[in-house]
Amino acid sequence: MSLDKFELAGKIAVVTGGGRGLGRAMAIGLAQAGATVVVAGRTESDLKEVVEQIESEGNQANYFTFEATSLKGCEALVASTVEKYGRLDTLVVSHGVGDGNMAEFISEEQWDKVIGIDLTSAFKCAQVAGTQMLKQGKGSIIFISSTASLVAFPGGAVYGAAKAGVDQLCRTLAFEWAARGVRVNTINPGFMTSHMRGTEGFYDNPHYKKDVLARTPMKRKGAPEELVGPAIFLASDASSFVTGHIMPVDGGWCLE
Q1: By C-alpha distance, which of 95, 148, 98, 80 is closest to 126?
Q2: What's the pLDDT tens digit per position in 52-76?
Q3: Which of 63, 85, 159, 203 is catalytic?
Q4: Using CA atoms in the order 150, 152, 156, 159, what is the torsion angle rounded to 10 degrees?
Q5: Is 159 a catalytic residue?
């Protein structure tokens, strides 16, 4: 049956930033599709809560606390997963920070922070996981990027640059690893009902909300659960010939 290609039973998936927001939704969704999920991030209480929810639905999960900006932390995450489960089939890189400012006011500290978390640490996680997948001869890496990589936003200089870097990283890794069985793709969310820590100031601004809805063809924000379908597709054999793809999930935002 064609739907069997979307089946994730027996697959081992790691979701970074899985304790809240978009990562949480995808961790739960991948588990519902049959994967055993390692929910990874910094806040243990959030991770435990996600694992408890997954297990309450009769699915399999574990959690791992780590610092994504640390290469040793990424290595420990992958090593722990492989030691426990014997392999790593899917990595979803969903951690990140949104810290915007108009270009003339971006400090060196702010620039380094956003680039370090949103781009450099994404590479570290992918490099370590990809090395393991290359040994296996198969795997799927899914970066959670942003429509900020595709269109310009006021105050988005550093965040947009970081996410554009993620998109190009995706393309390059996909090109380098395609012949060895490892696929790399991105999901680029538009404006969602969930948001990253530190972005409350503009997300909760009523004028900002009105502008977002007016600019979005579907006239609404996306729910975190609406990333689950794309994530399952890219994690599964249904996308076996898809690599280096940049996939906006944005209610049509990038059409204009």
Answers
A1: 95
A2: 999 999 999 999 999 999 999 999 9
A3: 159
A4: 10
A5: yes
